[in-house]
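Q: I'm building a small set of examples for a reading group on sequence design. Run inverse folding on the following structure and report the sequence directly after it, with nothing in between.
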């Protein structure tokens, strides 16, 4: 067991390959998503030509989850693995 960024204890599983998955340990696809809802506040920031970091901060205050956070949710649910989340989000560290 390990501790995740939200301090909850979860089980991690390692993938094992077989002939059905071409020895990758994965079969099919599962998406991870980042949805950026354009609110009136966000629209105002866009019109004011604010930087992307300002837009991202505002979106996060409004509940946006990053790709990496959605990936961690799917790791906790046993849908995918940490190495796969790191691979697709291009992050090198397991925990912040």
């Amino acid at each position: 067991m390990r501790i995740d960024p939200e301090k909850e204890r979860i089980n991690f599983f390692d993938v094992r390959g077989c002939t059905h998955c071409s020895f990758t340990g994965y079969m099919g696809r599962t998406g991870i998503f980042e949805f950026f809802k354009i609110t009136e506040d966000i629209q105002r920031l866009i019109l004011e030509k604010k930087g992307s970091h300002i837009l991202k901060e505002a979106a996060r205050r409004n509940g946006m989850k990053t790709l990496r956070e959605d990936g961690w949710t799917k790791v906790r649910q046993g849908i995918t693995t940490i190495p796969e989340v790191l691979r697709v989000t291009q992050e090198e560290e397991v925990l912040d």
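Residues 92-96 have pLDDT under 50 and may be disordered.
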